Amino acid sequence: MVDQRRDRLRSPAVIRTAGLAVCLVYAGLIGWIYATQPQTIAEVSGGLASTVGAYRADPVAFEEGLAFFRQEQFPEARLAFDRADPARRDPVTQFYIAYAFYRQGWGRLYSDDALFTQGLEAVERAAALAPGGRVIVDDPDLGLRSSDELRVEFERGLKREWSDLDPRRVFRERK
Amino acid sequence: VTPGGPLAPVREAFTLPIALLTIAWAGGARLSVAGELRFEPPPLMALVLSVLLLALMARAGALATARLFSERRSALENASGALVFVALLAATAQVFHLLTPTRGLPNLFVNVLFLALLVNTFSRRTERRHLLNSLAVMFGSAFLLKYVVLDSMATGGAARRFFATAVEGLTLGALGLEAQPPVMGYLAFGVTALYLVVLWWLPFEPRRWDDGVRTAELLTVVEARLLQEGRSRVDE
Question: Which of A15, A20, A23, A25 is the mutation pick for testing B, counting most B CBs within 10 A?
Answer without folding.
Answer: A23
